[in-house]
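MODEL INPUT / OUTPUT PAIR
PAIR INDEX: 1
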Amino acid sequence: MSLMVPEWTRETTTPTLAACKAANFPRLRYMGSKYKLVPQLAETFAEIGGTRALDAFSGSGVVSYLLKAMGYSVTSNDFLNFPTVISRAAVANQSEVLSDADIDLITGPAADDRDFIQSKFKGMYFTDEDRIFLDAAWSHIDNMSGAKRDLAIAALVLSAARKQPRGVFTFTDLRYDDGRRDLHLPLREHFRERAAEYNQAVFDNEMDCNAVTGEVFDISADGFDLVYLDPPYAPPKDDNCYVKRYHFLEGLSVYWRGQEIMENTKTKKLVKKFTPFSYKKTIEDALLRTFDRFSKSTIVLSYSSNAVPDVETIKRILSEVKSDVEVISINHKYSFGTHATAARRNASEYIFIGR
């Protein structure tokens, strides 16, 4: 059941009301997502204050949305495209929604005879009917622009994620079909429901907000009161490759234009993007460079006890650029792995605050 959220105004918002609003943000099942930590983060952000905030690794978009609900001028960034589209649709967008006519058009007959998804992913992930719909939907989205285009792509991405077991694309069959409605609802109907969810999420916080795609080291460090960091966690074992898990969503967000598909792979995954945050050998230097880049802002970092480096190492690194470092530990059931041996889920989530 959705929570009843009062009409947003910057003058009356509180951490509790902002967290309540964020609880209604369309939920994407995403590795490392911070939906469950929203109440704690809201209290932390309220204590810090300020007016301009950066969410440097936006992922599911929920923290960017929380910051917007708290009245910040938000810059949302991610190194993948589909999280940026989500943030453009629900954070940067202040007023546009998809009309009933827009939704009817996208879920109606195709505007052309394109069949890229039908042919490239034949027999994979979805039904024939679903793959036909995805091609047809893009035949209309290609004629859209601005926030409406972002909303349509975000709804399409969320539809595909909800329909796929566990929300990841590391397998092509239905081995994890547990009978849930989401797994059997046609994508055409998913899209109608997801579009309605994103429409409900749109609101004007009376501040300039934007969303970009890029590396954290390319973001201008000037002017942010608050910088929130939730980088990919360097795991001691296994991997944390977002491209491997969400390659289909990334490709779908651009209709695979400009993407390199690894044709020899069973899942038709995309070439992995390098990030120094993913490896034990490079994570400490990457964190130090990031902390140093945003040393003039208050830094809030989320990190998990499932990852390396450990809490004391991160505290030491952050202390190199911040004289006042606070560490908050939160017991958290953390979604990290998707396989039977992923037993690291009960963990402590740390919130580091560097002033």
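PAIR INDEX: 2
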Amino acid sequence: MNEFTVESFEEYLTKVRDSLGVVEKNGKRVRRYFRGQSKRAFEGYDLKPSIGRYDHLSGLPPAERDRLENEVLETFGNHLLTYVNHLPRNDWEALAIAQHHGLPTRFMDWTTNPLVALYFACRESKKDKDGNPLDSAVYVLISEPPRYSELRRQQKNGGAKVAESETAIAVAGDEDGYDNYELDEEGEPPVVVDDELETATIARPRSQSETAKEGDPSPFEISANVIYDPPHVSPRIRAQDGVLLACHQPMLPLEEKDVLEIVISHAAHDDIRRRLDQYGVFDKQLFPDLDGIAKWLKYRVFEINGMT
């Protein structure tokens, strides 16, 4: 895994801007995706979805794991009507809601905003078993997986499943997610809005057989990782510029060739937290609810001097 180590907020901005830059394929821009972790992958927190962290599932045949995932999702879906105003249209939206509420799924959380990833990398500093402070990391997805919207169009047009060797699907439009990620004139971080993010409005969820007949791919049948732009089931998703990576092998970590690691020195965490707070990328902005206000006050009152 290629890695860089940064010692300051400014160095991180420079590394993202200069080293990652704007990637173009066939004249179209390709969006990068970022994931912040308070523990680095080599410290035991592998880059894999939450369901892949249950070791006892590794011993199950893939078909049995898929069956288990489907049964759990069906049970979850049966309870949705009591709690939501709009039911999911397919398994992708149902899994996104389940992921948002903490159910282990084959989805991984990523963001198009590198400052949001930096927040998750530095918000809470961790220590090893001996009490020594740990560096954190921001991971950049460089494998350029195709997007669900394009995969869906391909299948409806009679195309085959996306293969491992397929090239990246470029992002439509002029936004690349990080052209102007530093600050605007008001000191606020930019918000990347995707026109494909829609709220489900259909009156009931459709079964796998129904979606298959209509040409929709299933997250349980993909043959490569796929980027999915989730519907706005929560203000947090929009505030965090969130996207989901659907993993076709959820028990395995991402391959090293697929990601770049930006190591954030633990000595820089305190200053980075202050800078992010000043720039409007902190608790109450990224968690626009009472939880976010409580986290923000906790930081301002009790943690501002580095105390935990």
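PAIR 2 NOTE: The two ends are 32 Å apart (CA to CA).
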